[in-house]
Design a protein that fits this description.
heterodimer, A: alpha/beta, Rossmann fold, Alpha-Beta Plaits, 2 domains, six-stranded mixed β-sheet, four-stranded antiparallel β-sheet, 13 strands, elongated, B: mainly alpha, antibiotic resistance (chain A), nucleotide-binding (chain A), ATP hydrolysis activity (chain A)
Amino acid sequence: MPSVIEVTDLRKSYGGRAVVDGVSFTVEEGEIFGILGPNGAGKTTTVECVEGLRVPDTGRVRVAGLDPVADHDEVARILGAQLQQSELQAKLTVREALELYAAFYPNPADWQPLAERLGLTAKLGTRFGKLSGGQQQRLFIALALIGAPRVVVLDELTTGLDPRARRDTWQLIEDVRASGVTVLLVTHFMEEAQRLCDRIAVIDKGRVAALDTPTGLIRRSAGATVASFTPSAPLDERELSGLPALASVERKGDRITLTGTDETVDAVISLLARHHVTAHQLRVTDATLDDAFLDLTKEATA
Amino acid sequence: MNTAVLRTEFRLFRREPAAVFWIFLFPTLLLVILGSIPSFREADASMGGLRPIDAYVPVAVLIALIMSGVQALPQALTGYRERGILRRMSTTPVRPSALLSAQMAVQGVVAVASALLALVVGRLAFDVTLPRQPAGYLLGLLLAAAAALALGSVVSALSRTTKIASAIGSAVFFPMMFCAGVWLPVRSMPHALARVVQLTPFGAAARALDQAAAGNWPGWTHLGVLALWTVLLTAGAARWFRWE
């Protein structure tokens, strides 16, 4: 599949401090690509270079083969953006905003179904300044999609939304992708990234700390599998710490929690069997992206 | 200039009762109040036989320009930048400059309409003669409007926040009102003062409008001063304006 967004060795500093320090990634057509990272990691600056709002110090950014700065107008026609912090004129109504922004594009999307999908139909006559934070956010998502873009960049998409609206928005993003739109998603919500993204670039301190599928990121972090149980008899500490591919052991009262790989789990089960120890309330789960993220960004810090 | 943006900005302007009042209605209201004072309707020998109300029509016209250019425009432009509206627009095929130019067009049109309202009310209510040199009057009016908008743009360019814009706007407001002749018509000022005031945009505008009202072609010096200010202020605004 062809790449829609190509970012190569992007660098941007402010006042001598490198905010983006050699970021590279490509986003394939029809993909939901996540950019995940702690606050101040350089996520927003990176996507602002993709949107053409900032000029990179060095490096190359291409959107459908176009330069977002030099070919601003062409890129703006195919890329929709939802910015982290922006407002509209306080006295502009939702309907007027939708109609106005639709008029900016040669072949805009039909705004009525879009407003319907985002639960804005009842608010069409309401002025921007009177909308709740969540409604404003949904309007911005609508404005990002109104030009029927090929690529949509969403920065902190669901911040300020309640859990129900958040889930509805995720469904909307999945539908948008199903219609062939490529999505670049900046987030610090692990659940959001894990649910939506095909691939994720974890950015930390201006660099790409890891780039993989959500499952891949979890698998490559040290403690991908978590097993916890309460043994019917005490276990030898040395035998536990000798388990293959073990990442950590934690005891809380009688309960033991191990992290490692499937191999670790296999080994602990045979260990228990050899000693005729029963594992009460045995739970084996995959680590979450949360765990992987903490593991990856910790590594980069160390 | 994008017509959808222009339409929207005009609609939004109408939703600001304060702006509508101060720019569109206040100058004429002031004229009506002054005209209700009997002594303002009596010919004054020191003004070459004109009545004070005759001298105040051009002042009312200039107040409209000052209100829109120096008070309303910087607030609007700075607010659009401060609240990320320009940035939001930068991600669309329509450049944020479309929003700035639409805002200027709206302010300019409303100010000129307010000036025409003052002329009409002056004529109908107080029998103030309409400008005898209409083409010259219109030219002076348009140049003065351009200078007012350019001045407002510079204020906005130099103001990081709407609070600063409002402070600079107020600081500039009173000297501009003085130069326009609100307290003392420029033609009645002492000679030395008048010479200085005529070098300011609104002082020059006041003289140009006076001359055109009396039936003469406005002096090229006054028109030249206005044009020069417009060019300099526009260049300054273009140079110093920050989009973010």
